[in-house]
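Researcher: Following up on the earlier apo prediction. This time include the ligand. It's zinc ion, with the SMILES given after the sequence.
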Amino acid sequence: MYNHPCEYCSGGRVECVVMPRELIRVGKTGFVALEQAPIGVCTRCKAKYYHASVIRQAESLLHRRRGRVVKVPVGRFVEAG
Ligand SMILES: [Zn+2]
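Model: Understood. Below is the ligand-bound prediction.
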């Protein structure tokens, strides 16, 4: 699915890693947590690549409202005095 040279560094190779739970951005503000997702990760710079089928499933989860829904705390970073 991946196994190609990295576009972001020289000498890096993209390998498939199955992530237990990967947060994937969909559109400007959407996020889904896709479980057991095969993600491409560069062996050198650790850049991540998402195959079209992974993106499609993430979009499907968001737009068709499939899957479990969990609440996620959201807060603005506040500089410590
Ligand atoms: Zn790289």
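Model: Helices lie at 52-63.
Researcher: Noted. I'll compare it with the apo version next.
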